[in-house]
Amino acid sequence: MRRLMMICLAAVTLFASTAALTGCVVVAPRHPHYERVWVPGHWEGRAWVDGHYR
After folding, report:
1. Over the stretch 5-19, which tens digit does the pLDDT of each residue have?
2. Where are the beta strands (DSSP E) in 1-54?
3. Residue 2 belongs to domain spanning
4. pTM score > 0.70 for this model?
C-alpha cells in the first residue's frame, strides 16, 4: 500500500511539474472584439483629446 501511494504521488508530481513547465492555459482567452485598447492623449488640431479606452 505504501509503495502504491508513493507511485501515485510521484505520478501526480511529475504531471504537475510538466504542466507548469509547458505553460498550459486553463482559462480560454476572451474574444478579440471584447478587448479594450488604451488610446493615449493626443493633439487634434488645436484641441487636446484625453486618453481613453477604445
Report:
1. 999 999 988 888 777
2. 38-39, 42-44, 47-49, 52-53
3. 1-26
4. no
Q: What digits encode the pLDDT tens for the residues 13-42?
A: 888 877 776 665 566 666 666 677 888 888
CA–CA separation, 15 vs 21, rounded Å? 10
Residue with cell 481613453: 52
- What is the residue whose three cell numbers read 500500500? 1
Does residue 34 belong to any structural domain of this protein? no
Domain assignment of residue 9, yes or no: yes
Does residue 11 belong to any structural domain of this protein? yes
Q: What is the DSSP letter of 51?
A: -
Look at the block and give the residue holding cell 488610446.
39
The residue type at 50 = D
